[in-house]
Amino acid sequence: MLDRWSDEDAAEAVARWGSDAGEQVALRVYSSRLIGADQSLVLHGGGNTSVKDVVQDVLGRTRRALFVKGSGWGLADLEPAGLPAVDLHFLERMRDLETLTDEAMVNAQRTHMFNASSPNPSIETLLHAWIPHKFVDHSHADAIVAVTNTIDGVARVKRLLGSDLVIVPYVKPGFDLAKLALEALEAQPDAIGMVLMMHGLFTWGETAQESYQRHIEVVSRADEALAQARVQMKSPAPSIPTGRKTACRRAVMLAPMLRGCLAEGESPWKRWILAYRGDEEVLAYVDAHALQQYAADGPLTPDHVIRTKRLPMVLTVSMSEDGMSWRQTIEEAVAAYRDAYDAEFLACADAGDGVHSYTKLDSTPRVILVPGVGLFGVGITPKDASIAADIAEHTLRTKARSVALAPWQGLSPQHLFEMEYWSLEQAKLAKRVERPLSRQVAVITGGAGAIGVGVAQSLLDAGCAVALLDIDPGGLERALTVLGGASPTLIGVRLDVTDVDSTTAAFDAVEARWGGVDICVVNAGIAAVSLIDRMSIDDFDRVLDVNLRGAFIAFAESARRLKNQGTGGNIVLISTKNVLAPGAHFGAYSASKAGAHQLAKVAAIELAEHHVRVNIVAPDAVFSQGEVPSGLWATVGPQRARSKGLRPDELQEHYRQRNLLKAEITGSHVGRAVLFFATEQTPTTGATLPVDGGVVSAFPR
Predict the structure, then answer these.
(1) Which of 148, 173, 202, 668 has a 20 to 30 Å separation from 502 between CA atoms?
(2) Catalytic residue, candidates 170, 276, 589, 655
């Protein structure tokens, strides 16, 4: 394992944070980030670190304090604010207690912090406090758990990792673990670190560098042992893995049906987001003879069960069959998984300590392994799904390395149940509030323009995952930048709306990213300014190609995807007030939009039985959304102004003055109208919602 310590970088960290937080805390932040940067050590917020230093209280007294990683912070991007300071003297006195509940422990730590606005200290704060060394590092290193999580793991740790390590049997994190670990350490005071069976590695030192480098040294011992065992291992050859292109194609076919079968309820459905992984290594594991072994015996560490549940779902579909025939197989697999989860919940709850009552969590799998396809992470949000998928990848790789030493042995179902239903974790889940569209995926054609950006922002704010589809790469880049950049919930995909293959590929890309589509906003549009008798047929065809043909292709593609997914959805056409109140010199635009308007109404009739709603938003002219100009008006605005006898700089004010409310219509206004339909606040389909400030000539009649 690479030692990334740099004296120069450490000095820069002290220069950056030392004046406010102190040199020791600055070095703690620096070395914590070194650990957090390596996913083989910690993954998605795992692990914690601490340093013992001093603070000045409000009375000017120097007080000993433990600065320990706080809840909600990851090591990779740790800041001094993520190291809440707790009264070390008080924490040390807690060693005299015989018993302490988790809730009382958290409260005691919380009430002895020096800054009430800091995050809650780590659940392993007491262990950090009681280890009699200045710097302490804790990780869930893959190589360490690959050694510990085996049959006869304790003996193997002693033999392979060295006699300078304390070994502590598995106990759930908290007061009991801290007491047990302290007893073991006092019996071996010269140790440089501590291996927690099934739970990772602690190291310590009098400097940040010493503790960090000891950590790297011990993990390297485990890496070397695993590498040697791998060389010596004689195992049956793995089955030939599926090629990536074939696997990705199957994943796109499978994912929407999988989302549909995972969804619960009916209109509104409780949907799930998927994250697909299908590189060569993952495919080799899910196609291997040992798949059932990889899928059994639980996660690498108990911390992961909150993200992945105890076991993944293994789904086997016949690759020789048409993809549409997979649905029954998927439904049966999902039902069997949920039944097994519910039965295990009842058995483990009955075998519990009798003190706690448990509220059953949902029984939806968080990891799905599919031979010939890869794996899917499942979550409420794209981030949740991606975290589950990342953990699943690490789990497969680590178990594959571990079996070179000995058969894998994870924690018992009861131990993992106690972690999944731990009162402290239940409290975190209870505080989580879902946003209205946090389980949904939207595509927006013409997504790089002013209306596209306004709609995207409204959907993103409601928790939706959003794909901007547009033909202009530069415009997409600008729109993504304005919206905060590409992220787990926002992507850009190039799309020519007039081309069927381009549209299919764009929707495929979105389904490959998030598993499906729930909302389609048909927004792409262009215009031409001309009297009918002077308009070229080429200009007329060009406008109809984008505005009508493009709308038809988007409607058809959306309808097929939503019907295949089977959980309803929403299609929203961005139309115009011109359908009801056309104007001279705008014949091609008005005719194309009127045609799209009628397509939307027909789609509403045809798709209602599939619980797909189709509605229309009819704005008046939108010239910009913040710093994003309207491409349409940038192109035709000067001509449109001349057709009305106006200067170009008078056009926007002309449109504002002609509506009753004297309102300037923006992309955000259109976005809020789309949001109204997408959140299904009323049982409405086939409707047109004007967003024009009140243009009398466009009143519905």
Answers:
(1) 668
(2) 589
